[in-house]
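Box 4.2: Ligand-aware structure prediction
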Amino acid sequence: NIKEKLGPQVNYTITGIDAGAGIMASTQTAITKYDLSKHNWQLQTSSTAAMTSTLDKAIKDKRPIVITGWQPHWMFTKFPIKFLKDPKNVYGKAEHINTIVRKGLKSDKPEAYEILDRFHWNPKQMSSVMLNVNNGMDPEKAAKQWIKANPKMVSEWTKGVPKVKGGTMKMTYVAWDSEIASTNVVAEVLRQQGYKVTIQAMEIQPMWASVSTKAADAQVSAWLPKTSGLYYKDYKGKFEDLGPNLEGAKVGLAVPKYMKNINSIEDLNN
Ligand code: PBE
């Protein structure tokens, strides 16, 4: 078992996703904190789709690769990958995803507010919607199907909330797989409540701005405390935080499990 240096084998590249993602900012911090830049490591910007396709190819050839990884996501179901330990705690431990609504929503649309306030599910449930979408199902259809199959869960969010007639709701999101799943599920539940709901995908900063300027009513995409932390701080005081809708999310760097010698971000320099 010849121990080769990892860096040259992957061109000192961490395969990342879209530039605006919090995981990209955290990874830049990791590059600094773990002294990876000294060894020429760099973060490559791409997209989730491009990253997972590069990962797929590397795994088929059993080549090494370092990616930005997070959970819940089907990459952990589909590929044999592991998180690298993060002894300097750059990415934080567990994260939660919060629901953020515009100020005044509670008095304007109390029924929608109540449902958004109660909305919560777990990583397994979110993953099942994500997996269907990844397998080609239309997100709206995947949401409807999940709602139909999980009446107990959905009634925890809607029980006793009066139906409405003719109200509108506008939700914004970033088109990450997890947020496509959650936003479509919540939008569909609100539709079944009687709202006309539009969902609009955008970049992360405009998404936070939209709720903070009341251009949109809600978003369910706030990965905290670290991943969306900068936006949370920037817009603090201009939105209402309804708390976690999902617990047990995680963000970090990941590698295929066959990279047996690489278990911590610190190992990237070996
Ligand atoms: N993610 C998925 C996002 C949040 C949801 C981890 C890629 C990020 O901002 O990094």
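In the box above, the bound molecule is 1,1-dimethyl-prolinium. The chain is about 40% helix and 20% strand.
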